[in-house]
Every structure is written in structure tokens, then in C-alpha cells.
Amino acid sequence: MGALVLAEGGDFVPPNTDIFFLPPIFGSVTKPMVLLVLSVLVIVAFFMVAARGLKIVPSRFQFMAESVYDFSRNNIAREQIGSKDFRPFVPLILSLFTFILVNNLFGLIPILQFPSMSHIGFPLALSLLVVYPVWHGVGIRRHGLGKYLKKEIFPPGVPVPVYFLLSPIEVFTKFIMNPITLGVRVFAAMFSGHLILVLFTLAGEYLVFESSSLMLAPVGILSWLFAIAMTFLEALIMVLQAFIFANLAAGYIGRALSEDH
Questions:
Q1: pLDDT band at 156 (very low <50, low <70, confident <90, very high)
Q2: Quick count: other Cβ atoms within 10 Å of Cβ 10?
Q3: What percent of the chain lies above the pLDDT cut of 70?
Q4: Which of 51, 94, 158, 219 is 20 to 30 A from 123 via CA?
Q5: What whole-number distance in Å separates Cα of residue 143 and Cα of residue 194?
Q6: How far is it, in rounded angstroms, from Cα 125 to Cα 121?
Q7: pLDDT of res. 212
């Protein structure tokens, strides 16, 4: 989480953004990079182990894997893309959901205790280098470049003069802002959540062990209790953010494939 920093005179200095910039482990390799690789290994191992010796009556482990797959397939991909077109995109949606989920949950695991998606480059890379090309690529392949751009930029049923105002907004929204906000949303939630947990944990430590006033010790314990409560809330947010990212990605793909606007 980071070390408790005391200013001269023993005053508490709250954590800042420095806690997200961890020193290299070796060479130029940092902890977030290692966590990304670890997350891939964890996901691959999880599904490989679950797929061994499949049974009609699943074990708890098999049931967990099937639930994750079913949720990604039916509740995200099928709902957002449509029953006609969703099947080819199930691996992508499943991968996005599980990858972001595991990297988010790393922030709650002792020793690891760092949500990889709190580094903005990682969710933006997923959005701009993975979702964005697939999203517009499938639309262009389905409709052709000209028809796709017309469908996205010039919504039908709008008076021609309105297009001078509406079309630039459509271009800015669909080709610039949507892919950026897709990544920023996850980053902002993980960044702020991790910072809040560190703040209340270290504040509790300072008030209980470092403060010169014993009267502040109960406040420090209260701070710890709040950190525990926030941990459960943060766990829920981590799952929700993984779902939202995958759900929006599937929604963009479904909209690109659809015939209407």
C-alpha cells in the first residue's frame, strides 16, 4: 500500500499519487506489469483446471467457471450484440470481463494490494487497441465503409440543416470520446478507491500508534472500521466496473452491426 510518511514534527501526511508509481522490481519491470502477466496466468489456469473432467453434475469449481462463462455469454454478449451475431464475440467479451475483474481484485489481495487498472495506460490500451478496432472494424465489414460512416454520422430522420450541428457531435462522441471514457471510467474508479483505502488505513495507524494524544486512538480505530467497510464496497465496485467495461464494449459492437442507428 505504501509507507506511512510523517512530516517533521510527527504530523500526518496523507498519501498522494506517489503511491501509484512503484519502483521497478528489476530492470524496467514494475509491479503492475507483473500483475498483468499474473492475471493472464490465473485466468488461463482457472479455466483449464475447470475444464478437466467435466461432469454433468458440476463440482463447485466447475460451477464457478460455468457461471462466469454463462454470465459473459448470455448476460453481456447476447444481450448487447443480439442472438444472431453474438457468438463470435463471446471469447472477446469473456476475456475482457475476466481480465479486468482479476486485475481489479488484485487491489484487495494481501501482498499484491494493487489494482492494475489504476494505471490509466492499461484500461486505455484495452479500449483503444482492442475494443475500438473491433467495434468499428466489424461495422465496416458488415456495412461497407461508406454506409457505416453514414449510419454512424448521419442518423436518419433528422432535418438536413441539423446535420451541421449533429454530425460533428456524432463524430466526436463515437470516434473519440466513447473509447476514451470506456477506459477512463475503470481507471477513475480503481484510482480513487485505492487512494481512499490507503488514506483511512494509514490514518488509523497514525492515530492509534503515532499520535501523541490517546484520545485520538478511538478515532483511529473508527478509521480502520471505515476502511474495512470501504473494502467490501470497493469489491462490489471492482466487479461492477469489469461488468460495465465488457457490457459497453459489447454494446458498441452490437450497435456497429445493427442496421439502424
A1: confident
A2: 10
A3: 95
A4: 51
A5: 43
A6: 6
A7: 67
- Contact (CB, 8 A) for 232 and 196: no
Cell numbers for 85: 451475431
Whole-angstrom distance, CA of residue 207 vs CA of residue 191? 24
At residue 72's C-alpha, the angle toward residues 41 and 110, to 5°, is 40
Cα 128 off chain centre by? 14
Grid cell, residue 122, equals: 492499461
Span 154-178, mean pLDDT? 92
DSSP state of 29: B
Rounded Cα–Cα distance for residues 98 and 40 (Å): 9
Q: List pLDDT tens digits, range 110-121.
A: 899 999 999 999
**Which phi and psi angles does 29 have, rounded to 5°?**
-85, 125
Q: Please, which residues have CB within 8 angstroms of residue 48's CB and are 6 or more apart in sequence? A: none
- Residue 24's contacts (CB-CB under 8 Å, 6 or more residues apart) are 30
Q: What is the pLDDT of residue 10?
A: 61
Hey, what's the cell of 166?
449533429
Structural domain including 90 reads: 5-257
Q: How many domains are contained in the chain?
A: 1
- Quick one: which of 245, 244, 258 has its CA closest to 138? 258
User: What is the model's pTM?
Assistant: 0.90
- Nine-digit cell at 258? 445493427
- Residue closest to 186 by CA, chosen among 244, 226, 144: 244
